[in-house]
Structure prediction request, 225 residues.
Amino acid sequence: DTAVSQTPKYLVTQMGNDKSIKCEQNLGHDTMYWYKQDSKKFLKIMFSYNNKELIINETVPNRFSPKSPDKAHLNLHINSLELGDSAVYFCASSLTTSADTQYFGPGTRLTVL
Amino acid sequence: GDSVTQMEGPVTLSEEAFLTINCTYTATGYPSLFWYVQYPGEGLQLLLKATKADDKGSNKGFEATYRKETTSFHLEKGSVQVSDSAVYFCALHKTGANNLFFGTGTRLTVIP
Prediction:
């Protein structure tokens, strides 16, 4: 009965590779998000989708491309991985774009070697 | 712009000690305020929230009061336990916006 799930939990890869992280929510929410948490635990929004449409696209390299096949899924594809991409990536969802409470997934720890 | 400033950690306390983690915010209008907790190796969980001035959010013995006059939302607990060891994040959500602004997190370690 997991509300927001992410796969994989851990991802270790070489520089220059392309990888994807998947996120699914079973809460019936319209809005989903990707956050990046750096090594100092600082959390920052990357993207927000509402009903499969991009709402927020913060200053993120265009190597990062989110894809939302339906409103329950928001995947994150990263091209040409760099060392600085190493972080924990959190998916989250909320009932609507203006709903204040967000529910977070368990995170995906990405390590780029 | 909107921002959240949190007390720098880490904070180390003995079991049953009193906890305060300070949080102040900058935002126009009337944001909702949150405390999220991240236990080791896990994602963020909502701990408590308050949506208007003078509201008090509470959960699991933790509480925080939305103080508009001091733009603060300090987290308190009267008697911490070892199981409270985690990173605590203060966050705000502005009406009409659709993302959370987080503070930098405060790591709490409670020793027996």
Residues 38 and 80 of chain B are 16 Å apart (CA to CA). The mean pLDDT of chain B is 92. The longest strand of chain B covers residues 86-93. Chain B is about 0% helix and 50% strand.
